[in-house]
Design brief:
The protein is an alpha/beta fold. It has one domain: L-arginine/glycine Amidinotransferase, Chain A (5-stranded Propeller), CATH 3.75.10. The protein contains seven helices and 15 strands. The chain has a three-stranded mixed β-sheet with strand order 2-1-15, with helices on both faces. The chain has a three-stranded mixed β-sheet with strand order 3-4-5, with helices on one face. Strands 6-7-8 form a three-stranded mixed β-sheet, sandwiched between helices. The two termini are 20 Å apart. The structure holds glycine. Glycine binds next to loops.
Amino acid sequence: MAGYIGWTGFGHFTHAVVRGVPASLAREALRTVGGAEVDLERARREHAAYVGVLRDELGLRVVELPAEESLPDCVFVEDAAVVCGDTALVTRPGARSRRKETEAMKAALQQLNLNIVEMTDESATLDGGDVLFTGREIFVGLSKRTNHRGAEILADAFKDYAVSTVPVLGGLHLKSFCSMAGPGIFVVGSSEPAQKAMKVMQEMSDHQYVKVTVPDDLAANCVYMNLPNKGHVLLHCTSEEFPASVKVFKKLKNYTLVPVSNAEKAKVDGALTCCSVLINKKA
Ligand code: GLY
């Protein structure tokens, strides 16, 4: 199948698109829970460290889009596009205040010569945070941000893959409590909504997945890559944030584990996968 990645090619990336942290993030970014004030400078330091890991430690070519003050959530680029192979679906984010984030993303993906598909149907909404690509299939979380029509359009864009929907009963997005930790390996939080969603995904799938459960839902959002000279790489939360969950990651064999702090962005529902769109561009 043209474009099919499978587990062998899973996690191979050459480029990342990221975006700066606007000052407006601190007071105006959307959030599901109020309370904790965002320390803007700390958020910017954390984000710079994240981008530094992608570029300097892992050797990806990083395209950095400038922060846009009128788009407080713009650092969370994952929601604006879903890239699989050479195809990029520019989404229609569920939150109105986030729709214009797609403009700069589309331009960046065009520059990278990807085949662009745009979600123009006004009845559709989809955030990339609800899209879990396993290498063999795609799960789309139906959440407050993503609806059935959004999932249908995604399925049309990525015809090489089976696409299944799963209800998101807690958290903002599907990937607010789960992600991939390797080919065929799910990592999932231990809350009831997280475990229920995982059960639905495993029951719907024709593939066998290993499930790694971590105590904290937010810690289950990791970035997995398989890189030349590095092998299996997992960016995950730090021991300061989630000590019990990090103990689980430390048991993974033959991994380069890269702890990355995300404490400030987490206050406005940002997770590690949210802050980059990863791309594999063949030479
Ligand atoms: N603050 C991230 C979002 O609500 O989309």
